[in-house]
Amino acid sequence: MKILIIEDEKVLAESLKRILESKGFEAEAVHDGESGEQYALLNIYDLIILDIMLPKKNGYQVARSIRSKHNATPILMLTAKSDIEDKVDGLNAGADYYLTKPFDMRELLACVNALLRRQGSQVNELVFGNTRLDLESASLICGENNVRLSAREFEVMRMLMVSGAHHMSKETLLTKVWGYDSNAVENHVEVYVGFLRKKLMSIGSDIRIETVRRLGYHLECEKPC
């Protein structure tokens, strides 16, 4: 599962990232509201940890913008403010839970796990058409047929299923699956999309990965989904 940390205190952000990764999560950290909003709207995260006092855009503005785009990713809001009015403002902006600094890391992990549990089956699998992507086993499942995916196949498929009918650019896939510092090029994305197309066909999936020049990829169903 992927968690986005939007926190301008870099020491705290890196500490949160390390602790979450030690618990088996994937975590990314950004340090201002504008960047945080852009990352959040990629729709590839299972949870957002959002500070309020941020440069460029504050946490309230980021949360409202995320919710206005119909992004339902759970938001755990962090702040040094403890007044009731601040908590009400945070919840009204779209936060799901509010944690006041300083906090115990055990408390934060308990909040993270509680918010992820609320997502129910959405956390355990993604569904498009007649096909499910099991997030625990990294398997594509269609009826009684299933196929295991490699780590990179899984990440590419996961992002495509989250994005669904919306375009996912090759640049975004490269950055999120291979990383900023990778030497991978767009051809790597094309190769893995080819692998996924073959595996979808092998299990009788009605999903097609469509390519749109200059825009990237999106999913379609052979029949209306």
Question: Can you walk me through this structure?
Answer:
Helix 2 runs parallel beside helix 3. The protein is elongated, with a radius of gyration of 18 Å. Helix 4 (84-93) links the parallel strand 4 and strand 5 (97-100). The model has no long low-confidence stretch (mean pLDDT 86). With 225 residues, it is α/β, with parallel strands linked by helices. The chain is built from 9 helices and 11 strands. The protein has helices spanning 10-22, 33-40, 59-68, 84-93, 105-118, 121-124, 151-163, 170-178, 186-202; strands spanning 2-6, 26-30, 47-51, 75-79, 97-100, 125-128, 131-134, 139-142, 145-148, 207-212, 216-221. The strands form 3 sheets. A 5-stranded parallel sheet has the order 2-1-3-4-5, with helices on both faces.
List keywords for this structure.
four-stranded antiparallel sheet, elongated, 23% strand, 44% helix, 225 residues, alpha/beta, five-stranded parallel sheet
Overall outline: elongated
Order of helices and strands: EHEHEHEHEHHEEEEHHHEE
Please outline the major beta sheet: 5 strands, parallel
Percentage of residues in helical conformation = 40-55%
Oligomer: single chain
Compute the number of helices.
Answer: 9
Mean pLDDT: 86
Strand content: 15-25%
